[in-house]
User: What shape does this take?
Amino acid sequence: MIDLRSDTVTKPTPAMRRAMSEAEVGDDVYGEDPTVNRLQDRAAEVFAKEAAIFVPTGSMGNQIAVKLHTRPGMEVVIEERGHIYNYEMAAMSAISGTLARPVKSADGSGILQWEEIEAALHTSDAAYYVAPTGLIALENSHNLAGGTLLTRERTGEICDRAHELKIPVHLDGARIFNAAAALSETVAALAAPCDSVMFCLSKGLGAPVGSMLVGGRDFIDEARRWRKLLGGGMRQAGVIAAAGLVALEESPALLTEDHANARRLAEGIAEIQGVKIDPERVVTNIVIFDIGGTGHAADDICARLQHTHNVLASGFGPSIRMVTHYDVSTADIDKAVKALREVLHKG
Ligand SMILES: Cc1ncc(COP(=O)(O)O)c(C=O)c1O
Assistant: This one.
């Protein structure tokens, strides 16, 4: 099976499995798991922030951040395809009592200009009967927009202007290591101006479970209370944190290979008649292409890819998404392109 549905499908490496079996553990609700503590310290160090907390999922990390930055009745400004808005179960309203204010990026890249954000803000000058903006939520790389990138400069500009207006900025950096690799930046530089950052160990970095929320010490102390409230207080979590530590140290260097594979996939797909994709826009590990011009439905094609060629992909409306990761080789990419061509034009 060539599984291109997501980079969440990666299996732990032998080094991760070894680290898990040998992990020193304790009760993390008492703050006594040495492996979790090491992971948290290391994540804070890598991101050059004061503190970090290990959370079971990226969604929990994002939603704790929304909760801590806002009060009920506030709005969260976010790009309209942002994960926090589209795929986290309306948690920002269920948990935090906030309302998403989605903003479309005019150029379709998913990457907002400050002016687009500014037009959606309700600051202290706004009429008393509109909901104030409590938070701006960014995403780097931007998943649903096709792994597109927020540069250090753009992030800095947005954060500076937001902070002048006393609005905090949270970064959903589920794939920030992909962004850093593609931009030849450090994750610390990309995250520096943001008030908080969530990143996932369980996506391209390959750990089986877990994400980190990173920020100021007081913010993370408060995040620990909310993690417990949400049922995320884990006990001997060092068993999974051990894999996270290996992922954090060893996996970032491998991501450029995933990006090269994604570009190769995009270039192969671009040659298939009726498919719309610009390979130049594939800069990380996510490949999204429109098959509307072939007359087929995406879900149908994904089902046929699976049943006739053992290739897994995800359909979204007229588009198909394929994501590269370390369990997919360059030879697998070539097989996937061939399979897609056959399913679209010979089937
Ligand atoms: C951009 C982005 N943010 C957050 C998440 C949430 O992570 P999790 O599935 O661990 O809750 C995902 C997961 O796919 C994601 O792609």
Observations:
- The CA atoms of residues 174 and 293 lie 32 Å apart.
